[in-house]
Design goal:
This protein has 296 residues and is mostly helical. It has two domains: 3-88, DNA polymerase, domain 1, CATH 1.10.150.130; 115-291, Intergrase catalytic core (hpI Integrase, Chain A). Helix content is 59%, strand content 5%. It contains twelve helices and three strands, in the order H-H-H-H-H-H-H-E-E-E-H-H-H-H-H. It has helices at 3-18, 22-43, 52-64, 69-88, 115-122, 130-145, 149-154, 182-199, 219-233, 243-254, 259-266, 271-292; strands at residues 160-161, 166-171, 174-179. The chain has a three-stranded antiparallel sheet, with no helix packed on it. A hairpin with a 4-residue loop joins strand 1 (160-161) and strand 2 (166-171). The radius of gyration is 23 Å and the shape is globular.
Length: 296
């Protein structure tokens, strides 16, 4: 079977059988296409001829290209999934990735904003037009709840319970309810009651946040929003859509919240994912000590 057919069938498998997210799908396909290009240009073989030595050489090639440890690990995971699929359809008899492991790299701690930087960022959207109301509501909601950007843009109007001061998030079939502080409730309430009705393209639109065309906000659209306000706030840190989520968790922890509660609000399946914020807070305290103590 031609190489392209294996890749096409793998793409269908990811979409229709695994039901992976759009980002995971794109990563897998990009990694496998890059791997197949390498095999064709450097080894002159197809995927069904790959051996473990060839795969180890590919890892070395990626490292030689300057790829980070996390990128190499992701590529290896994509290839492992691909060969698992090839085994299932009988194209290969053995998965060459099966017993290959990489040295674990130290996990990079996420960057967060200080409380002052958060206040500065949240103060940027001005409620002088519809976009300002919307943007302030989005930023306040993100910092109030720590939800993922994907959850923010997929949120529907019915997921907001203003009278109770909570929002509902549904991810991977699981629901969680997260409280909002008063300023966030006001910002979301003003957006819904004053401008959303004028922004939506159709009265049947369910999306909570919409773009200038009146349709559901996209991830790319939100990226542009937050980058714009980073510039207007003149914050030097590289703010990503996830920065407010990280800041939410770290600030709660700094102020006495327990890890289990933060885990539940963030929607982490494993407490180890939440513990990274404890490491972050400890590192910050150590940095403050080293800078401020006269004998440090």
């Amino acid at each position: 079977m031609p190489e392209e057919n294996y890749i096409e069938r793998f793409q269908s498998y990811l979409r229709d059988d695994r039901h992976v997210s759009a980002n995971t799908y794109l990563s897998y396909v990009r990694d496998i296409n890059q791997f197949c290009d390498y095999l064709k240009k450097h080894k002159h073989i197809g995927v069904t001829e790959v051996s473990q030595p060839v795969l180890k050489e590919y890892i070395e090639w990626l490292q030689g290209e300057g790829k980070s440890a996390s990128t190499v690990a992701r590529c290896l995971a994509s290839i492992k999934c691909f060969f698992g699929f090839l085994m299932d359809i009988g194209a290969v008899e053995k998965n060459p990735v099966f017993d290959i492991s990489l040295e674990r790299s130290e996990k990079k701690l996420p960057q967060i904003l200080t409380s002052e930087e958060v206040e500065l960022l949240l103060d940027q959207p001005k409620c002088t037009d519809m976009k300002g109301y919307r943007d302030r509501a989005m930023l306040e909601l993100l910092y109030a709840t720590g939800i993922r950007v994907s959850e923010l843009i997929s949120m529907n109007i019915d997921d907001v319970k203003l009278s109770a001061g909570i929002v509902k998030c549904s991810t991977h079939g699981k629901e969680r309810f997260i409280p909002m502080y008063p300023a966030a409730i006001r910002a979301v309430s003003d957006y819904i009651n004053l401008v959303r009705g004028q922004m939506i393209a159709s009265p049947t639109e369910e999306a909570l946040f919409v773009n200038v065309n009146g349709e559901r906000m996209t991830r790319q659209g939100f990226w542009k929003v937050i980058k714009h306000y980073q510039e207007t706030a003149k914050i030097d840190k590289d703010i990503t859509p996830h920065t407010l989520r990280h800041s939410f968790a770290a600030h709660l922890l700094e102020n006495g919240a327990d890890l289990r509660s933060i885990q539940e609000m963030l929607g982490h399946a494993d407490i180890s994912s939440t513990q990274v914020y404890a490491q972050l807070v400890k590192k910050q305290l150590k940095d403050v000590y080293n800078k401020a103590h006269p004998r440090a």
